[in-house]
Fold:
Amino acid sequence: MEREIDDARCRLLVRVPAAPSPSLRDALQVLAAADRLAGLVAEADAVPEGLAASLPAALLLAGAFEPEPGADGVIVTLGADAEMEVTALRRAWGRPGIIVVAVGTSRHVAMEAGEFGCDVVLFDGSLDSVSDCLHWWQQLFVLPCAARAEAGSISALVRAGADFLLVDGDWVNADLAHEMAAAERLSTSAPTASN
Structure:
């Protein structure tokens, strides 16, 4: 899930239920074919059987501190000792393991998580706050950033610089690939605002 230097394409992390609907499975196939699907996110005790193996996507477990068979990584929220927790996660999951740390809109926690070895920081909050965090992060850091997205916020978060968007599978559809591509075209053609 590392961002290529010249790759401006935002990709999706889709939270999936234990029993995805046929329409969600179809949408995931279309998104994967369009190279917009980076990963599936599931609860450790509710991983959809066979879904991850059928897609070119990582399987991330929500809140699982210990590795599970077939999982590629984890999405967690840190407690009071970020260094100890990220270090323990890295030790448990190893270097190929993907560690995504949810940081809310705390720039301090985001920097700590990155410093201590996470692979992606995940911003979550109001659209304006998260957009500000994404823009700030992209100006200063190479480590990929993600944002939790709602149906109406995809375009704004792509334009703000999200490398990944965490979305709920209950509203995901194949048209997201087109919406994301259109937002990227807008962001590359728009003049940069000076501060």
